[in-house]
Inverse folding.
């Protein structure tokens, strides 16, 4: 056991971690350098890594180069001690831009992170991390999306609004962890489904409402743990006519659907739950793992192998302590945000690159150390070009300097993050109060809602009960959230969706709706518990004090089949 340098809790270092760090090697001439063992516990490592990623807070600001108004994840007012140049994609990718012009020699009289902070301030960064989008300015971490608004971490979507982790979806609103689905509303962790409302943890469903844990079902409402069923209400079989009459009693009414949502929450507490969402996988622990093997304490991972402590990974291999890793990243340690990389450690947003240490925003690079914003470069240190021989001589000296200062083997510290803890992905995974965050060395941003230029403001409680009675000019109003009082807008495309689907206008601010969906997600922490039916010990994300019925795999399958 080791003691975390941050929280002072004891944590284990497993034999597979030691074997992995020996496997990770950076060859520098005749020297081979391996990352050292961690000094922070897995939870603190996750916080320190994800505090550098903002997915859901968007700001209108002026671009640094031209003064043109842009949408960015970077606030125009920098945090204390921060200064960033923010470019649009066109400006950042312009042929004339060569970030080696910001190169400088490493100063062995100063700490590494102090010097890297100055490099960060000088090198321009992208206002948004997006690629190939069309008419989707208010999105982050998205690729090849069209006509989308306020979604993040999503690819190949069209006409989707207010969501997280949407993959190949269309015409869906207020959904998170939605895959290959269409015409869905208020859904969470749903796969290959069509025309569903308030459905969660389900696959291959159609026309299902206010239900959970369904597979291959259609026309089911207030149901759980059904397989290949149709026209069921509260898990009772009805005729088509009986079912449709029951649904007519509430559907389309804001008050009626609110009652259904309350009953759904009661159902969650009484229905059996599988101890973990691990499917078609071998020797894996964590949650939401598919088609993988030997992935331990991992979350939202598919088609992956030989990894530990990964949060969100697609086709990863030999990744430890990594987040948001996509499309075949291999041999990665303490890295966030990649596409197709090999042998990277302590990196942030690096793509199609290999053999990188302490780099950020680097594309198509290899053998670089402590660099920012480079494209198609090799053998660079602090953005300065070196020969291969010079590079292989200097990097071990810098690492020795970092070891002396206690910096080698540490991820970029929270002080280098451009975001307040409450702006970042870390806040979503591991919430802290302002006092707690500052005590641990994180920034904090005091955020206020932008003033809305609207024709009128209306409390949500005064909105008409049904969409048919909502006037066209509601898009010019501000609606005050029933829970927080925060004002929010209904955009035109959103209103059209509600009308097509006969759905009432939402009464809650988009942030409240977002947080409520994510609250369905268990924490990314494993506990040892006993199956509440047979007593078998399992590793689960259901904390010991939770009251839901938590079953092992065998007992759960017996329950649903």
């Amino acid at each position: 056991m080791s003691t975390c340098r941050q929280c002072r809790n004891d944590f284990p270092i497993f034999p597979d971690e030691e074997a992995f760090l020996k496997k990770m090697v950076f060859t520098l001439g005749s020297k081979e350098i391996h990352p050292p063992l961690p000094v922070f516990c897995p939870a603190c490592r996750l916080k320190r890594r994800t505090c550098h990623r903002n997915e859901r807070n968007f700001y209108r600001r002026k671009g640094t180069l031209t003064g043109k108004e842009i949408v960015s994840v970077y606030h125009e007012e920098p945090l204390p001690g921060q200064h960033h140049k923010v470019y649009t994609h066109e400006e950042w990718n312009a042929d004339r831009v060569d970030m080696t012009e910001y190169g400088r020699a490493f100063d062995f009289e100063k700490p590494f992170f102090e010097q890297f902070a100055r490099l960060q301030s000088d090198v321009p960064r992208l206002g948004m991390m997006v690629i190939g989008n069309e008419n989707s300015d208010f999105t982050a971490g998205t690729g090849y999306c069209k006509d989308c608004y306020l979604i993040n971490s999503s690819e190949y979507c069209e006409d989707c609004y207010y969501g997280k982790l949407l993959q190949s979806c269309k015409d869906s609103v207020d959904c998170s962890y939605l895959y290959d689905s269409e015409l869905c509303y208020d859904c969470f962790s749903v796969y290959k489904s069509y025309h569903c409302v308030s459905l969660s943890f389900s696959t291959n469903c159609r026309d299902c409402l206010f239900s959970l844990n369904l597979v291959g079902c259609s026309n089911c409402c207030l149901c759980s743990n059904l397989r290949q069923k149709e026209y069921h209400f509260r898990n009772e079989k009805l005729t088509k006519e009986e079912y449709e009459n029951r649904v007519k009693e509430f559907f389309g009414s804001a008050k009626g659907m609110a009652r259904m949502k309350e009953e759904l929450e009661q159902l969650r507490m009484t229905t059996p739950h599988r101890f973990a969402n691990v499917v078609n996988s071998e020797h894996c622990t964590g949650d939401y793992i598919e088609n993988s093997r030997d992935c331990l304490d991992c979350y939202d991972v598919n088609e992956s192998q030989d990894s530990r402590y990964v949060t969100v990974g697609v086709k990863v291999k030999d990744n430890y302590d990594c987040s948001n890793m996509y499309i075949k990243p291999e041999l990665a340690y303490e890295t966030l945000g990649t596409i197709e990389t090999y042998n990277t450690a302590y990196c942030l947003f690096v793509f199609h690159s290999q053999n990188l240490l302490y780099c950020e925003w680097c594309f198509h690079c290899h053998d670089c150390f402590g660099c920012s914003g480079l494209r198609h470069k090799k053998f660079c240190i602090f953005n300065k070009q070196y020969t291969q021989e010079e590079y292989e001589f200097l990097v071990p000296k810098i690492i020795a300097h970092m070891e002396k200062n206690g910096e080698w083997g540490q991820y970029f510290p929270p002080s280098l993050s451009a975001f307040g803890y409450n702006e970042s992905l870390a806040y979503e995974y591991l919430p802290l109060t302002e006092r707690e965050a500052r005590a641990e060395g994180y920034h904090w941003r005091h955020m206020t809602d932008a003033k809305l230029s609207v024709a009128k403001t209306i409390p949500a409680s005064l909105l008409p009960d049904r969409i048919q009675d909502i006037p066209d000019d509601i898009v010019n109003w501000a609606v005050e959230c029933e829970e927080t009082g925060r004002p929010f807008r209904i955009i035109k495309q959103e209103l059209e969706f509600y009308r097509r689907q006969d759905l009432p206008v939402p009464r809650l601010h988009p942030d409240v709706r977002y947080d409520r969906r994510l609250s369905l997600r268990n924490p990314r922490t494993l506990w040892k518990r006993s199956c509440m039916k047979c007593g078998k010990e399992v590793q689960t994300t259901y904390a010991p004090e939770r009251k839901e019925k938590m079953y092992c795999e065998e007992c759960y399958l017996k329950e649903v089949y």
